Amino acid sequence: MKKIHLHLVSDSTGDTLEQVAKAALAQFPGIETVKHYWPMIRTARHMARIIAEMEENPGVVMFTLVDHEIEKVLVDSCKKHGWRYISVLHGIIRELGRHVGEKPSERPGLQHQMDDEYFDRIDAIQYTLAHDDGQIADNLMDADIILVGVSRTSKTPTCIYLANRGYRAANIPIVPGLPLPQDLERAKAEGKFIVGLVNSVDRLVQIRRNRLLTLKETKTTDYVDEDLVKEEVKESRRLFTKMGWPVIDVTRRSIEETSVAIINLKNKYDEEMAAKK
What we know:
With 277 residues, the protein is an alpha/beta fold.
């Protein structure tokens, strides 16, 4: 296995750089990567000191630097040593600036400012955790998105992902023999965005059996009876059709794919609702 040293250089926390590097490296499973993190570099002098340490493990350099002086010190050193280097944001910022006709502020760390969007996201996460699996169903009017589905249709992880994107997401389980919360009917009547999630019967049975094993439950129950699960899925689909809710089959989707599909549906729904006003 080929081994490389990867130096991640940033004038901020390096979170953006880490995510980009992770996504790129996933395409090269045959490479063993030793990562070296160099965050919060704010002066050219600091950059020069870091380069002296980087010389101990030469390799590929990826960076997110908006200060031209700092960037020049790094790039000049990379050229001098023959190191490969990649500016992760420079091309994007340059082209975006050309498109909008504006000059970038060139201030590091702006994406991490604790602005209104940041606090809205924290509020969304708190709301979502409080409204997981129908724990609180008496203020669904505050939700941006409501997910409904039988057990093990990825409602909780999908809601958590949506919350991290800034959406207040609640999820309501469909339990055989139990009525749905009355507030769900009210939410539908007031035009709240509600999505039904379904999974294949085979997949549901498999996931539920694994769930019981983790709980050290060995007895056969209705929870994993294939005929009963099939009926659960059928009834949930009937409910979604009756209510007119969009349906997403999560069987072959990742949490991210499901969430993106939900966000796209919500954007379309919001546009339709705005057009009616």
